[in-house]
Every structure is written in C-alpha cells, then in structure tokens.
Amino acid sequence: EAFESLLRFAENRTSSLFETAYRPMAKEAAEPVKELFTDISLYILGAETTVESAVLRFFDSLFPLVYSRLINPGITDLSEDYTECLRLTRQDINPFGRYSKNMVTELSKSLWASRMLSQALSLGIEVINTTEHAALTKECSKALVKMQYCPHCQGLTLIRPCVGYCLNVMRGCLASVSELDAQWREYISTLEYLTNEMAASHDLEIALTGIRNSVNEAILHAQLNGPQLSATVRGLNHRCTVLLLNVFFLRYREFINYMKRSRTFYASIAERLCDGDLVMRDSSTCWNGEDVVER
User: Which interval of the chain is the signal sequence (predicted)?
Assistant: First the structure.
C-alpha cells in the first residue's frame, strides 16, 4: 500500500508538470506518463521488465509530442507512420541529451531495493501464512489438553501451568516450526539491509518524486536544441521508410518462427491431451473401456 500510494503521488506530480508548463501536449502526454508508472509498479512487484526499458520507452513516446507540439507547434498532420519513426529513432537522435540516461541511473538502484523488499515481504507473508496453519500432532494435542485442563479434575480451575512445563510442551509442539529459526533470522537481516538501502542514498521517495524534474530538464534540453533537432528530423524521411519496413519484416519473421513451432499442433492434439492428468500413468492398472486391466 505504501508503494502504491507513493507511485500515485509521483504520477500525479509528473502529470501536473504537463498541465502547468506544457499544456499543448498535456492531454497526449497523459498516456505515456501512466504507462511509465505502470511499468515501474510492475517492476517493483517483480515483473520481468527493467527500469531502463520503462524509462526509454517513455522518452520514445514523449519525443514525437515534444517535436510536434513544442519545437514545431505548427505541425498538425504528423502521420502515424512518421510518429512511429520518431519513436524508433529517438535514441539515435538523442533529443533529451544526458537526462534520459540520468533518470535511468537515478531510478535503478532505489527501485531495485524496492523490488527486492517487495518480493521479500511477499515471501515473508507466504511463510507466516503457512506456519500459522500448521497442523498439530496427536501428541501435541494431548500434551496441550493435559497442561491446560488436567488441573480442573482436581477443582483447580484457576491454576496456570508452570513456565518451564509450558515451555517444554510448546517447544515439543512447535519443533518443526522452530527449525525455520536460522533462516528466519537471515530473512529479517535481509529486510533490514534492504530497508537501509532504501532509506540511504537510494531513497525511493526522492527518486520517484524526482521524475518530474528529470522530465522537465529533458524537455527543456530538447527545446533549447530545437533548430538542430528539426534539421536532423527533416533528414529522416528516407530513413524512416527503410526503418519501418525493416521493423515490419522483423516482426513478420518473428511471427513465422513462432507459428513454425506449432506446425504439428492438430496432428498431436490427442497426444497432448493424454499427456496430463487424464490418464493413469503411475498405476499398474487402468480402465480399457470395459474392465480394469494390467497396463
């Protein structure tokens, strides 16, 4: 909940930058900002993604907006293909200077610690839930009843067990759980380390709330270099066509390679269905439709 609350605050703070300083692109920038913080959230929760890919994807989406709404506000007919071309060539043109990479560096360490802490907390919850519902043995149940209620037979309803006696009973009952002690101690030490990492120079709150300033500096850099960027972009017409064709054929090849793997799908459906729990593979006998027979 703390992570989610902090992410929402940082996202709103970043969105407000466009609403106050860059209104011509505020509406269109809302989706890239949302995607950035969604990617960050997924990363913290353990998804198979990276901080670098999330940040660079954000700046890829931001560049066409900065170019058409701030650097060349007269452009009103930027085609979808040309917009995609600007996205694909953003890293080569580098319109945001060092600021995009700086943002990756600033976020990476703090988000890594947060990711590890989030996963560690989830693991801790899982362990606690498992041990909380550990079944008691018959011997343990008898020992507990004897300790708690046998005095009642003599009318001693208010008497309580001796500390040493109680400890012996409880230690016997919790012998299997107590075996986790060493690992649990190590786990707590790891949590302490990760928390210290977050609280030190890689504080998550500072890193996330700093996204607004990083984005602002990146946009200002692009605006200051607007004439050079415009000249560079004008030379992209032919390159864009070639690049988009290459992307298309690359995706096509990936699709074909994927489809090749399913070449025998229909021919092997029966084998696939009978390869699971549908059949008795671990038994010496089976049902042949009429009777139980030896395999």
Answer: none
Percent helix, percent strand, percent coil in the chain, to nearest 5: 75, 0, 25
Determine which helix (DSSP H) or strand (DSSP E) holds 287, and give its type and residue range. Answer: strand 285-287
**Token duo for residue 71:** 């650097």
Q: Which two tokens stand for residue 236?
A: 């992209």
DSSP-derived 3-state class of residue 275: coil
Judge contact between 222 and 64, C-beta under 8 A.
no
The answer to whether the CB of 118 falls within 8 A of the CB of 45 is yes
What is Dmax (Cα atoms) for the chain?
A: 99
Residue whose structure tokens are 């085609």: 79
Nearest to 66, CA basis, from 53, 75, 55, 54 = 75
Q: What is the DSSP annotation of 88-118?
A: HHHHHH-TTTTHHHHHHHHHHHHHHHHHHHH
pLDDT tens per residue across span 62-71: 999 999 899 9
Mean pLDDT estimate for the chain? 80
Separation in Å, CA 151 to CA 139, 207, 227: 19, 61, 92
User: With contact defined as beta carbons under 8 Å apart, do 160 and 151 qualify?
Assistant: no
How many CB atoms are located within 10 Å of the residue 285 CB? 11
pLDDT of residue 242: 59
Crossing angle of helices 51-66 and 211-224, rounded to 10°: 40
What would the pLDDT profile of 186-245 be if each residue is shown by its tens digit?
A: 888 888 887 777 766 557 788 888 999 999 999 999 999 988 888 887 766 555 655 555
Minimal CA–CA distance to 11: which of 35, 30, 37? 37
- Alpha carbons 229 and 232: distance in angstroms, whole number: 5
pLDDT above 50: residue 280: no
Q: How many residues does the chain have?
A: 295
Query: How far is 26 from 241, CA to CA, in rounded Å?
Result: 29
User: Helix axis angle, 99-132 relative to 51-66, nearest 10°?
Assistant: 140
